[in-house]
Amino acid sequence: MKSKASFSASHPPKPFQVLFLTLILTLLLTACQASATATPDIARTGTFPVDSLFNEYYQGLGGENQLGPVISPLFEQEGLKCQYTVAVLMCLDPEVTGSTRYRMAALGVRIGIHEAPPGGAQSETSQVVDGYAIYPGFVKLISSLHGIDGVGKPLSNPRYNYAQQRVEQYFENAAFYYRFDDPSGKVNMLPYGWYYCGRTCHYEVSEDNRAFNPVIQPLDTPFAPALENIGGLRVFGQPLTQPYKASDGNIEQVYENIVVYSAIEHPDVIHLRPLARRLDMIVADPGPKKYGPKDNMVFYPTTGDLGYHIPVVFDGFIAQHGGLDFSGMPVAEVMYYDKDVPRQCFEGYCLDFHPAAADLLRVRMVPLGIQYLSRFTPANVVPTAMPKIKLVLTASEQAPQITSQEKQIINITATESGTQNLEVNVATVITLTLPDATRTTLAVSPTDSSGRTSVTVPAMPALSNGSMVVYQVCVDEPGSTGPCVNGSYLIWNNP
Question: Is 154 part of any domain?
Answer without folding.
Answer: yes
